[in-house]
Target: Galactarate dehydratase /L-talarate dehydratase
Amino acid sequence: MPTASSDRIRHVQLSSVVLPLEQPISDAKVLTGRQKPMTEIVLLFAEIRTEQDRHGIGFSYSKRAGGPAQYAHAKEIAGNLIGADPSDIAKIYDQLLWAGASVGRSGVATQAIAALDIALWDLKAKRADLPLAKLLGAHRDSVRAYNTSGGFLHAPLDEVKERATKSLADGIGGIKIKVGQPDTREDLRRVRAVREHLGADVPLMVDANQQWDRPTALRVGRALEEFDLVWIEEPLDAYDAEGHAHLAEQLDTPIATGEMLGSVTEHVRLIEARAADIIQPDAPRIGGITPFLRLATLADHHGLQLAPHFAMEIHLHLAATYPREPWVEHFEWLNPLFNERLETLDGRMLVPDRPGLGFTTSEQCRAWTVDAAEFGTA
Ligand SMILES: [Mg+2]
Model:
């Protein structure tokens, strides 16, 4: 049979990279004793090369545990890509899912696929010589950006205010701070202080990282109404769709959630329960760009807003394609892994004009590589 295109995948490289964080990070899960402070992020990088020497990179990640498992699963399935047409991403995605069907369609299994899927999309956009957002069809060339990294709970209030001022000066438009401490009065004290520091016009969000129960979330949520927040994030357990739905109905402040979910199917449950006003999928966590695009279509159909979680290097492109004005989360943590930087201006993050995702991995990224595996012909 004649084929519609002749290029084929000839080589896949997987790398496991351990990125140390500058200081241990604590959100509410640490203050309630559920987790230890985070000291590193483990990334799974995939690099795909074709016979015509086209090239794409993608990555997935895990925080605290799961990095070695993502890498191990990717090593088991990556060989399936050799000889495949890299443009047929949906077909390849299906093959990778079936290759790992025994361990399911969510979590670690699909997070391993995510690195490969993202690399395929990067490759496709580079072949078209377009930024990924343009290949997909963008609604905008920049996306409203907010800073999270300055508002964690290990930081004293003065430092949070200082870093918020710096973020705004750097062209980032909104500020998110962490709440969800065992003492809710302390949460309210910090929110009040930051709102007074920023003034009424700066978009401000809070994130409880799932640490309230239903009554606490409602009581604190009501107390937060006066601060005109853009959203309250993860007020409840990530899987409590019914609780989120009740809260969303009771409060004027929009409810945002979804970052912890590991598949589109889990998000569909949230959407069907009307659990959130703003959906926060994470492409590496739900299995890559292919499932993210399917979810985004569904979320728009249900009138939801979008604020993807973490990994701005990927999500900037995806947010740029969403019909409703989205937000993208600014985190500088992954910067050392790449040679390029994203620009922020007048509160927005600019879609880079470089083809694909617009990133190349740095020398530092290679220095932090703890293991690598190759498939096909280099
Ligand atoms: Mg969050």
In short: The radius of gyration is 20 Å. The first strand starts at residue 9 and ends at 25.
